Amino acid sequence: MASNNQTPEENGIDILDKNLNDMSRRIATNKKAIYVAFGGIIAIAAITLGYIYLYKAPKTEKAFDAYNKVELNANITDSVAAKEYKKVADEYSGTDAGNIAALSAAESYYNIKNYKEAAKYLEKFSTKDEVLASNAKTLLGDCYVNLKQYDKALDAYNAAVRSAKGNKAIVPRILLKEANVYDEQKKYADALNCYEAIKKDYPQFQLGNNVSIDAYIEREKARLGK
Predict the structure, then answer these.
(1) Are 90 and 117 in contact (CB under 8 A)?
(2) Which of 133, 207, 131, 206 is nearest to 167 (CA)?
(3) What is the pLDDT of residue 218?
(4) Contact present, 98 and 56 (Cβ < 8 Å)
(5) pLDDT in tens, 37-96
(6) Would you report the helix, strand and coil content of the chain in percent, each value rounded to 5?
(7) Is the per-residue pLDDT at 156 higher than 50?
(8) Could you give the angle at which helices 78-91 and 96-111 cross, rounded to 10 degrees?
(9) Inter-residue long-range contacts of 101-105, CB under 8 Å, 24+ positions, other chains counted
(10) Contacts of residue 44, Cβ cutoff 8 Å, sequence gap at least 6
(11) Does the pLDDT at position 18 exceed 80?
Protein backbone atom coordinates (compact mmCIF):
# COMPACT_ATOMS: atom_id res chain seq x y z
CA MET A 1 0.00 0.00 0.00
CA ALA A 2 1.37 3.39 -0.94
CA SER A 3 2.30 5.80 1.83
CA ASN A 4 -0.10 8.63 2.47
CA ASN A 5 2.85 11.00 2.42
CA GLN A 6 3.72 10.18 -1.20
CA THR A 7 2.79 13.00 -3.54
CA PRO A 8 0.97 12.21 -6.80
CA GLU A 9 3.90 13.53 -8.79
CA GLU A 10 6.27 10.96 -7.34
CA ASN A 11 6.64 7.82 -9.43
CA GLY A 12 8.61 4.66 -8.72
CA ILE A 13 11.80 6.02 -10.31
CA ASP A 14 11.62 9.25 -8.28
CA ILE A 15 11.24 7.30 -5.05
CA LEU A 16 14.07 4.91 -5.95
CA ASP A 17 16.34 7.83 -6.85
CA LYS A 18 15.59 9.53 -3.53
CA ASN A 19 16.33 6.34 -1.63
CA LEU A 20 19.64 5.88 -3.49
CA ASN A 21 20.64 9.47 -2.70
CA ASP A 22 19.89 8.88 0.97
CA MET A 23 21.97 5.71 0.85
CA SER A 24 24.97 7.46 -0.69
CA ARG A 25 25.06 10.03 2.10
CA ARG A 26 25.36 7.26 4.67
CA ILE A 27 28.23 5.37 3.05
CA ALA A 28 31.05 7.46 4.49
CA THR A 29 29.79 7.21 8.05
CA ASN A 30 28.49 3.67 8.29
CA LYS A 31 29.94 1.23 5.74
CA LYS A 32 29.19 -1.71 7.99
CA ALA A 33 25.48 -0.96 7.87
CA ILE A 34 25.65 -0.80 4.08
CA TYR A 35 27.32 -4.20 3.86
CA VAL A 36 24.68 -5.69 6.16
CA ALA A 37 21.90 -4.08 4.14
CA PHE A 38 23.43 -5.31 0.87
CA GLY A 39 23.61 -8.81 2.26
CA GLY A 40 19.98 -8.51 3.27
CA ILE A 41 19.01 -7.44 -0.26
CA ILE A 42 20.75 -10.52 -1.70
CA ALA A 43 18.99 -12.74 0.82
CA ILE A 44 15.60 -11.19 -0.01
CA ALA A 45 16.25 -11.62 -3.73
CA ALA A 46 17.14 -15.28 -3.22
CA ILE A 47 13.99 -15.87 -1.18
CA THR A 48 11.86 -14.12 -3.82
CA LEU A 49 13.30 -16.16 -6.68
CA GLY A 50 12.90 -19.32 -4.67
CA TYR A 51 9.27 -18.46 -4.01
CA ILE A 52 8.59 -17.87 -7.71
CA TYR A 53 10.29 -20.97 -9.06
CA LEU A 54 9.75 -23.46 -6.25
CA TYR A 55 6.33 -22.44 -4.97
CA LYS A 56 4.39 -19.94 -7.07
CA ALA A 57 4.90 -21.52 -10.50
CA PRO A 58 3.88 -25.06 -9.38
CA LYS A 59 0.93 -23.61 -7.45
CA THR A 60 -0.22 -21.70 -10.53
CA GLU A 61 0.01 -24.83 -12.66
CA LYS A 62 -1.96 -26.85 -10.10
CA ALA A 63 -4.54 -24.09 -9.92
CA PHE A 64 -5.17 -24.13 -13.66
CA ASP A 65 -5.27 -27.94 -13.67
CA ALA A 66 -7.92 -27.86 -10.95
CA TYR A 67 -9.92 -25.17 -12.76
CA ASN A 68 -9.76 -26.97 -16.10
CA LYS A 69 -11.03 -30.20 -14.55
CA VAL A 70 -14.20 -28.39 -13.52
CA GLU A 71 -14.45 -26.43 -16.77
CA LEU A 72 -14.16 -29.51 -19.00
CA ASN A 73 -16.85 -31.50 -17.18
CA ALA A 74 -19.64 -31.05 -19.72
CA ASN A 75 -22.25 -32.88 -17.63
CA ILE A 76 -21.79 -30.85 -14.46
CA THR A 77 -24.82 -29.04 -13.06
CA ASP A 78 -24.73 -25.45 -11.80
CA SER A 79 -25.20 -26.67 -8.25
CA VAL A 80 -22.18 -28.97 -8.42
CA ALA A 81 -20.17 -26.48 -10.50
CA ALA A 82 -20.66 -23.78 -7.88
CA LYS A 83 -19.17 -26.01 -5.19
CA GLU A 84 -16.28 -27.17 -7.38
CA TYR A 85 -15.34 -23.68 -8.59
CA LYS A 86 -15.60 -22.49 -4.99
CA LYS A 87 -13.01 -25.08 -3.94
CA VAL A 88 -10.58 -23.87 -6.59
CA ALA A 89 -11.20 -20.22 -5.75
CA ASP A 90 -10.63 -20.81 -2.04
CA GLU A 91 -7.66 -23.16 -2.32
CA TYR A 92 -5.84 -21.15 -4.98
CA SER A 93 -6.76 -17.64 -3.89
CA GLY A 94 -4.22 -15.16 -5.21
CA THR A 95 -3.59 -17.01 -8.48
CA ASP A 96 -5.05 -16.19 -11.88
CA ALA A 97 -6.90 -19.50 -11.95
CA GLY A 98 -8.28 -18.86 -8.47
CA ASN A 99 -9.47 -15.46 -9.62
CA ILE A 100 -11.24 -16.89 -12.67
CA ALA A 101 -12.70 -19.68 -10.52
CA ALA A 102 -14.21 -17.03 -8.24
CA LEU A 103 -16.07 -15.53 -11.22
CA SER A 104 -17.19 -18.96 -12.43
CA ALA A 105 -18.38 -19.88 -8.94
CA ALA A 106 -20.33 -16.62 -8.77
CA GLU A 107 -22.03 -17.27 -12.10
CA SER A 108 -23.01 -20.78 -11.04
CA TYR A 109 -24.31 -19.60 -7.67
CA TYR A 110 -26.32 -16.90 -9.44
CA ASN A 111 -27.87 -19.48 -11.75
CA ILE A 112 -29.12 -21.48 -8.76
CA LYS A 113 -30.38 -18.28 -7.10
CA ASN A 114 -27.84 -18.35 -4.27
CA TYR A 115 -27.27 -14.63 -4.58
CA LYS A 116 -25.43 -14.24 -1.28
CA GLU A 117 -22.68 -16.67 -2.31
CA ALA A 118 -22.62 -15.26 -5.82
CA ALA A 119 -22.02 -11.77 -4.45
CA LYS A 120 -19.32 -13.08 -2.11
CA TYR A 121 -17.29 -14.51 -4.97
CA LEU A 122 -17.91 -11.60 -7.30
CA GLU A 123 -16.43 -9.34 -4.61
CA LYS A 124 -13.28 -11.50 -4.75
CA PHE A 125 -12.94 -11.26 -8.53
CA SER A 126 -10.78 -8.62 -10.21
CA THR A 127 -9.66 -7.96 -13.77
CA LYS A 128 -8.12 -5.19 -15.86
CA ASP A 129 -10.35 -6.04 -18.81
CA GLU A 130 -12.90 -3.22 -18.94
CA VAL A 131 -15.77 -5.18 -20.46
CA LEU A 132 -15.34 -8.18 -18.18
CA ALA A 133 -14.99 -5.93 -15.13
CA SER A 134 -18.16 -4.07 -16.08
CA ASN A 135 -20.13 -7.27 -16.62
CA ALA A 136 -18.93 -8.70 -13.30
CA LYS A 137 -19.93 -5.54 -11.45
CA THR A 138 -23.29 -5.56 -13.19
CA LEU A 139 -23.89 -9.14 -12.08
CA LEU A 140 -22.88 -8.11 -8.56
CA GLY A 141 -25.50 -5.38 -8.72
CA ASP A 142 -28.07 -7.94 -9.86
CA CYS A 143 -27.20 -10.10 -6.85
CA TYR A 144 -27.79 -7.24 -4.46
CA VAL A 145 -31.08 -6.38 -6.17
CA ASN A 146 -32.26 -9.93 -5.59
CA LEU A 147 -31.12 -9.63 -1.97
CA LYS A 148 -33.04 -6.33 -1.76
CA GLN A 149 -29.84 -4.51 -0.77
CA TYR A 150 -30.54 -1.63 -3.11
CA ASP A 151 -27.83 0.80 -2.04
CA LYS A 152 -25.17 -1.88 -2.58
CA ALA A 153 -26.73 -2.66 -5.94
CA LEU A 154 -26.44 0.97 -7.00
CA ASP A 155 -22.82 1.09 -5.86
CA ALA A 156 -22.09 -1.97 -8.00
CA TYR A 157 -23.91 -0.56 -11.02
CA ASN A 158 -22.06 2.75 -10.70
CA ALA A 159 -18.77 0.85 -10.60
CA ALA A 160 -19.89 -1.07 -13.69
CA VAL A 161 -20.58 2.18 -15.54
CA ARG A 162 -17.13 3.49 -14.64
CA SER A 163 -15.49 0.28 -15.84
CA ALA A 164 -17.44 0.34 -19.12
CA LYS A 165 -16.05 3.79 -19.97
CA GLY A 166 -18.87 4.83 -22.26
CA ASN A 167 -19.35 1.48 -24.00
CA LYS A 168 -22.50 2.03 -26.05
CA ALA A 169 -23.67 -1.56 -25.73
CA ILE A 170 -23.15 -1.82 -21.99
CA VAL A 171 -23.72 1.51 -20.25
CA PRO A 172 -27.36 2.11 -21.27
CA ARG A 173 -28.33 -1.36 -20.06
CA ILE A 174 -26.75 -0.63 -16.69
CA LEU A 175 -28.55 2.71 -16.53
CA LEU A 176 -31.83 0.86 -17.08
CA LYS A 177 -31.03 -1.37 -14.12
CA GLU A 178 -30.20 1.67 -12.00
CA ALA A 179 -33.49 3.27 -12.99
CA ASN A 180 -35.38 0.16 -11.92
CA VAL A 181 -33.70 0.25 -8.51
CA TYR A 182 -34.51 3.93 -8.10
CA ASP A 183 -38.12 3.20 -8.99
CA GLU A 184 -38.21 0.47 -6.36
CA GLN A 185 -36.93 3.03 -3.85
CA LYS A 186 -39.48 5.57 -5.15
CA LYS A 187 -36.63 7.89 -6.12
CA TYR A 188 -38.31 8.93 -9.33
CA ALA A 189 -36.11 11.94 -10.00
CA ASP A 190 -33.02 9.72 -10.01
CA ALA A 191 -34.76 7.22 -12.27
CA LEU A 192 -35.66 10.08 -14.63
CA ASN A 193 -32.02 11.15 -14.74
CA CYS A 194 -31.04 7.64 -15.85
CA TYR A 195 -33.58 7.57 -18.67
CA GLU A 196 -32.67 11.06 -19.83
CA ALA A 197 -28.99 10.13 -19.82
CA ILE A 198 -29.76 7.17 -22.08
CA LYS A 199 -31.70 9.37 -24.50
CA LYS A 200 -29.03 12.08 -24.54
CA ASP A 201 -25.81 10.03 -24.55
CA TYR A 202 -26.94 6.79 -26.21
CA PRO A 203 -29.62 7.79 -28.76
CA GLN A 204 -29.10 4.64 -30.85
CA PHE A 205 -29.90 2.31 -27.95
CA GLN A 206 -33.02 0.24 -28.55
CA LEU A 207 -35.18 -0.98 -25.66
CA GLY A 208 -36.94 -3.63 -27.72
CA ASN A 209 -40.66 -4.48 -28.01
CA ASN A 210 -41.12 -1.20 -29.90
CA VAL A 211 -40.94 0.71 -26.62
CA SER A 212 -39.40 4.18 -26.75
CA ILE A 213 -37.20 5.62 -24.02
CA ASP A 214 -39.53 8.62 -24.17
CA ALA A 215 -42.28 6.48 -22.68
CA TYR A 216 -40.17 5.84 -19.60
CA ILE A 217 -39.24 9.50 -19.35
CA GLU A 218 -42.89 10.52 -19.49
CA ARG A 219 -43.78 7.91 -16.87
CA GLU A 220 -41.23 9.27 -14.42
CA LYS A 221 -42.33 12.84 -15.10
CA ALA A 222 -45.92 11.84 -14.38
CA ARG A 223 -44.85 10.27 -11.09
CA LEU A 224 -43.09 13.53 -10.24
CA GLY A 225 -46.15 15.60 -11.23
CA LYS A 226 -44.38 17.30 -14.10
Answers:
(1) no
(2) 131
(3) 95
(4) no
(5) 333 333 434 433 343 333 445 567 787 777 878 878 767 899 999 999 999 999 988 888
(6) 75, 0, 25
(7) yes
(8) 150
(9) 101/63, 101/66, 101/67, 101/70, 103/136, 104/67, 104/70, 104/71, 105/81
(10) none
(11) no
